[in-house]
Amino acid sequence: MMARALVVALVCGVLGLMGCGGGSSSPDNGVVGNWMFVNSTGDSGFAFDAKADGTYVIGLLSLTSTSTANAQVEEGNWSATSTMLTTTPTKWSCTGTDPAETDSYDIANGDLTVTTSGGIIVLQPNTTPVSSSFVLTFGCFDQNGNFAAQPLGPVQ
User: What pTM value is reported for the model?
Assistant: First the structure.
């Protein structure tokens, strides 16, 4: 349970450090808001912060201690129809290309469910206050989960 609380705080911290945060509003088909998923062991998570101005930040986070974490971060522009969500990256903390992606989504019972080519992720509203007490290292996770530190930079 303690690890889950740390990941929730990290999600808030990464989005806060990236200049994000905020509640939800319309007429964005319900997508605007700060959304998160924390795995069952509480040691990693995923965050999606969709702002009303059409920009977003995505963070994939993994605890490395009680006060540090690795964060793969992507920034860009988003748009949505009633069933499809498109994200177009402009910056990220990996190298190489990072193509735009269009996925189906649904908002039900307060959760944002996104169906991607890789699977389904159910995100819940993130209502935890931003915490800056963590040290985040930006970088990139490879397909085996190994992390390499790297700054946030333009998408190639």
Answer: 0.82
